[in-house]
Structure formats: structure tokens, C-alpha cells
Specification:
single chain, 144 residues, Alpha-Beta Plaits, 2 domains, 2 helices, 22% helix, 17% strand, globular
Length: 144
């Protein structure tokens, strides 16, 4: 085998199962902004989530965000929620997650200023094209 196997179905003793993910943020950012695990349902408050500094990379400090759970069957959902909460916490605090190193950082961080309206960019282009061809306003997608 080329990867670790984690048995999440085994009953846990002690602190529980460790859930973790990594993120890189710029050297200019204070490291205390990476503790979004407290917002994630299913992750335990005690022992408290913790952050490890895993690398001083070329363009970012890489952090590993860690928290415990006793719900092994929910780890994929918790990790997804943890990622969403990291992005939300970073956006709220004006922290830009590092962009690929082949692009220069912009003068202003690329942080969304407004919540997403639920429409994908290609839908807006298609709506504009339809209006241009038919002169009519297209109907909003179901649920919008």
C-alpha cells in the first residue's frame, strides 16, 4: 500500500479520533486566525482544537488545524465543514489564502465582498446571451 489506512469504525478511547487539514497563509498574517475548528459541528471542544506550524514555505506559513471527534463515520462531512469554516473565517477577517506561486499576489486581497447569490458564472453568461438573442428576460432557475 502507498497510503495510510485509518480505521474510523473502531471505538475510541481517550480523546477520540484526530481530524486535521492544512492551510497556507501569508507571512504577514497573525497565526491566531486559523482556529476555525471551534465552529465545526461534531468536533470536540475538549480537548481544545490546536494548530501546528508545519512548514515555512516560499510564500506562506503552512498550518495544520487539528481537532478531535468521537464520530468516526462523520469525518468526511466534518472535514468538508471544517474547510468551509476556514474559508468563512478567513474572509471575515480579510485573510487571503495563498494563491498559486506562478501568480503574483494582488495589491488588495481577493476576498469576496458579498455573499454568493447562488448562480454560477456560466449561467449569467447564458442569461445575457439569451436576452441578446430573443430580447426577452430569461426565467430564473427553480429555487431562485
Amino acid at each position: 500500500m502507498n497510503s495510510d489506512v485509518i480505521n474510523s469504525s473502531k471505538p475510541t478511547d481517550g480523546d477520540g479520533l484526530l481530524v486535521h487539514t492544512s492551510v497556507g497563509i501569508g507571512y504577514e498574517e497573525p497565526p491566531d486566525k486559523v482556529e476555525a475548528a471551534r465552529r465545526t459541528k461534531g468536533l470536540k471542544a475538549r480537548p481544545a482544537p490546536f494548530v501546528l506550524w508545519t512548514a515555512l514555505a516560499d510564500y506562506a506559513i503552512n498550518y495544520q488545524i487539528n481537532a478531535y471527534t468521537t464520530r468516526g463515520n462523520s469525518i468526511p462531512r466534518m472535514r468538508s465543514d471544517l474547510h468551509r469554516n476556514i474559508v468563512a473565517a478567513f474572509n471575515e477577517n480579510g485573510v487571503q489564502i495563498m494563491i498559486p506561486s506562478d501568480l503574483a499576489d494582488p495589491a488588495e486581497p481577493n476576498i469576496p465582498l458579498a455573499p454568493w447569490n447562488g448562480h454560477l458564472a456560466h449561467e449569467a453568461r447564458e442569461d445575457t446571451e439569451e436576452r441578446g438573442q430573443s430580447g426577452a428576460t430569461p426565467r430564473a432557475p427553480d429555487g431562485a
